[in-house]
Design a protein that fits this description.
It contains eight helices and five strands. With 235 residues, it is of the alpha/beta class. The chain has a three-stranded mixed sheet with strand order 1-2-3, with helices on both faces. The protein has a two-stranded parallel sheet with strand order 4-5.
Length: 235
Amino acid sequence: MVDVSRSMNPLELEIQRRGYAQAIASDEVVGAILNSFTGSIAVTYVEWAGRHLQRTVVPWTLIDSPEAAQAVAAELTAEFDYSMRRTSISGAIEFAQFDIETNDFEGLRKVIDISGDGPNNDGLAVTRARDMALDAGLVINGLPLMTEDSSSRWGIDDLDVYYWECVVGGPGAFVIPVLSWDDFPLAVRRKLVLELVQERDILRLDQDTRRRDDGYDCLIGEKLRRQWEGNGGFP
């Protein structure tokens, strides 16, 4: 699930697509897929913005060979679309949960990957959507985009903590912050390999040490949006 809200410019949208394409077709990721328990994975690539704004770029596809991985990579970079309005992480999770539960595959482990450059500001509270997905047995991992140009009016400085506290969850869930667009392809590749080989301990942060004494405000995005709209702005 990849963020394409208006805070992302066309170049950043292209970097995301190309980053995932490079990662999925890399020798490292293909090797991890082929050496996994089943020797294959089923993937889809969905872009999201507001609660009801999702578009499927690559439908559910089985990757069980280098050729299948290359085909997915080619589909990702065939064309590049426009950005959309608002940021609904909760809507992305809702969409992903339904998509996983209604596809034609029965995976041993079902994972939602969320990447984005800001907190939830539309739709359900993100913690509610997260908890429903976790109750259904899904795992949510996060790739917060904390690049130098991501500090828009909708952004927050501790987006990685927000993802830990409010977005991710499930057995072995992790967060990999992206601090530079140059690092994006490597971060995606690292994430995919970690999910496949389950060597997460080296990246797991002690979530307890990242919790604030007074609790984290998981509605910070909604509050920022209301503040902006109250000043006559538009999301």
